[in-house]
Amino acid sequence: MQEVSVSAHQHLREQKIMPLFVSYLIPAVLGMVLMSVNIIIDGIMVSRGVGANALAGVNVSLPAFSIIFSISLWISIGGATLYSMALGENDIPRAQSVFTHSIITAIVVVLFITMICLWNLERVALLFGANEVILPYSVDYLRILFTFGIVYVLESVLSTFIRNDGNPNLAMAGLITTAVLNIILNYFFIFVYGWGVQGSAAATILSAAIGFLVLLTHFMRKDSILKLTSIRWDWTMLRHIIVIGFPSFVTEFAVAIVTILFNITFISYLGETGVASYAIVNSIHSMMLLVFLGVGAALQPISSFHYGAELFDRLKQALRLAIKTAVWLGAVAIIVGYFGADYLILLFGVESEQLFTMTSVGIGLFFLQYLFLGYNMVYAEYYQSINQTGKSLAIILSRGLILLLPLIWILPNWFGATAIWLVAPTAEAITALVLFIFVRRNKQQRAVMRPS
After folding, report:
1. Which has the higher per-residue pLDDT, 352 or 385?
2. Largest CA distance in the chain
3. CA angle, 326 then 62 then 355, to 5°
4. Is the Cβ–Cβ distance between 330 and 370 less than 8 Å?
5. If you ran DSSP here, which 8-state letter would residue 401 be given?
6. Is the pLDDT assigned to residue 384 strictly greater than 70?
7. CA–CA separation, 28 and 313 (whole Å)
8. What does R_g of the chain's alpha carbons equal in angstroms?
9. Residue 107: which of 152, 141, 145, 66 has the closest Cα?
């Protein structure tokens, strides 16, 4: 078995870092972009096929997706990191045990949460913000989502492990299958069969189930070591999975908190037009954020494997390449935002001149964060992938909450409402500066300690 593992993952040890990183980067980024486009198309179909109240009901239900996605991300990233480290060490039984623990944990946790939510479905919908008008739509959507949500989680977890098992193209194929089928099934279930929001929820789950079946073909590979095994439950291993994956959970949680804070701030200073403007900018930002997460997702299996294999020179090369890629993508995003803001806004059908102008200014300022965001996200993913969770968590909390909380009060109070757009760029810039100084000092300390 050990000989199979070496041959199956020989490319991770010997292939040049540039083509190796690209082979993981393209599927990861493309998969993330498809996820974001999918969400937008879902909203368009529900709005056109069922109505505005139905769309509001679905939007109110979206935190349920966040709950499910954050749990799958928490377990899959924590487990996949330990899995790749074990592969680097050629410890095949441990790698398979990590995979088995992760799958069992995901199933137990999600089933527990969904059972509680199904038992209190109307209360959950009201907690998410539903009122009497949109409550029926939210309940219909949530009932299907919570009943079959385990399918979505298993697809997400398995996709991450397959990528770490050296098959990023199949992970991408699973996501493409899910995304394309979701669009097709949404059309048929809503416009042809008239199933309303229940049809949209059913399309989401059914497409995920078929995507999951595509991913199962990975187990037909002769060189794959990814499989469920009989185990003695290891609470220490479970604790490591939870601790390592925790920064990914915090990332999702912070996004929800920040969105609420920005909505409150914009409505306080600029009213409903400000909230609408932020909604447009945030929709575009959600897609860009997933692109940078894709860069980190491409680095994670490479860095975890090389860390476990103690191939530290190749590990540093991969990190430098990921940082350069993220910074270049950030620069391109800023240029697109500066010259193409008006075209991006037109995609949302904005007719109000005030809203159009406010959003155009907002994109120009808000997009400045992308010069620093990629740098921060790559380092957060890097530290997480080599089991230095404390450093990863410090970066995520700094850029996501600790700096944002005072800045969102200080900047508009001191410099006016327009400065709200600069809150995120300022937080990212400060985090990047502190991180740069920290990394530089660590390098200098290692150089001094290295024997001459």
Report:
1. 385
2. 75
3. 70
4. yes
5. I
6. yes
7. 24
8. 22
9. 152
pLDDT at 349: 66
Predicted confidence band at 30 (pLDDT cuts at 50, 70, 90)?
A: confident
Where do we find the tokens 């487990």?
79
- Tell me the CA end-to-end span of the chain in Å, nearest whole number: 42
Amino acid identity, residue 84?
S
Burial annotation 91-125 (CB, 10 A radius, 16+ → b, else e): bbebbbbbbbbbbebbeebbeebbeebeeeeeebb
Query: Which tokens is 431 given?
Result: 């985090």
pLDDT tens per residue across span 34-70: 776 776 677 667 767 777 667 666 766 766 777 777 7
Residue 90 dihedral angles phi and psi, to the nearest 5°: 60, 30
Task: Return the percentage of the chain with pLDDT > 70, whole number.
Answer: 90
207: which residues sit within 8 A by CB, 6+ positions away?
Answer: 177, 178, 179, 181, 182, 185
CB 296 within 8 A of CB 377: yes
The one-letter code for the residue type at 38 is N
Nearest to 34 by CA among 212, 175, 201: 175
CA gap 201, 198 in Å, rounded: 5
Query: Distance of CA 62 to CAs 96, 124, 125, 312, 395, Å?
Result: 33, 12, 10, 41, 26
Give the domain ranges of the chain: 1-233, 250-444
Check whether 283 has a pLDDT greater than 60: yes
275 pLDDT above the threshold of 60: yes
Looking at residue 251, what is its pLDDT?
A: 78
Q: What pTM does this model have?
A: 0.75
Look up residue 338 and give its two tokens. 């500066």
